[in-house]
Amino acid sequence: MPNTYPSYIKSVLPSGVYPDERWFDVNLSTQRMYAYDGDKLIKTFIVSTGLPGTPTVTGRFRVYVKYTSTLMAGPGYYLPGVQWTMYFYNSYGIHGTYWHNNFGYPMSHGCVNMRNEDAEWSFNFASVGTLVNIHY
């Protein structure tokens, strides 16, 4: 299939990311997360990010720890057994979600909520150090 993009469009690869590096792009405007291997889009997910009072942080981050299951708690929530969690900045993470099925709309306290099966795929795709690029 020929390249149908105009010649002035550059690679989607963020600066500082190697051509063979896996990374995530989270678009807060569309409530979508994209998994890339270099500049190749591998998979797209519908997610739920932070509510207006508890927004998801924007910027470029790296996964610093992964848990197959963890407890998440804070003001107004206590969630044991949150699966496939990848923390990328302080207590902000990408993880599975069992307490709602309203993906595509902001629902969280700042994390990136995913269907459990999508979170498991993402967890296995990523490693500690994987870039997470978050923007509107």
In short:
This protein is mainly beta. It is 7% helix and 45% strand. The chain contains 1 helix and 9 strands.
Keywords:
136 residues, globular, 1 helix, 4-stranded mixed β-sheet, L,D-transpeptidase catalytic domain-like
Q: What's the arrangement of secondary structure elements?
A:
Blueprint: E1 22-27, E2 32-37, E3 40-46, E4 59-62, E5 65-74, E6 77-89, E7 92-97, E8 112-115, H1 116-125, E9 131-135
Description:
This protein has one domain (22-135): L,D-transpeptidase catalytic domain-like, CATH 2.40.440.10. The chain has one helix and nine strands. It has one helix at 116-125, and strands at residues 22-27, 32-37, 40-46, 59-62, 65-74, 77-89, 92-97, 112-115, 131-135. The radius of gyration is 15 Å and the shape is globular. Mean pLDDT is 93; it is low at 1-10. The chain is mostly beta strands and 136 residues long. Strands 3-2-1-9-4 form a five-stranded mixed β-sheet, covered by helices on one side. Strands 5-6-7-8 form a four-stranded mixed β-sheet.
Could you tell me the CATH topology label.
L,D-transpeptidase catalytic domain-like
Strand order of the largest sheet: 3-2-1-9-4
Q: Please name the fourth-level CATH homologous superfamily.
A: L,D-transpeptidase catalytic domain-like
**Can you count the helices?**
1
Strand percent estimate: 35-45%
Any idea how many domains? 1
CATH class: Mainly Beta
Q: Any idea what the shape is?
A: globular
CA gyration radius, whole angstroms? 15 Å
Arithmetic mean of pLDDT: 93
| N-C termini distance | 30 Å
Number-wise, the strands total 9
Structural class, by secondary structure, is: mainly beta
- Helix content percent band: under 10%
Question: Uncertain spans, ≥5 residues at pLDDT below 50?
Answer: 1-10
The oligomerization state is single chain
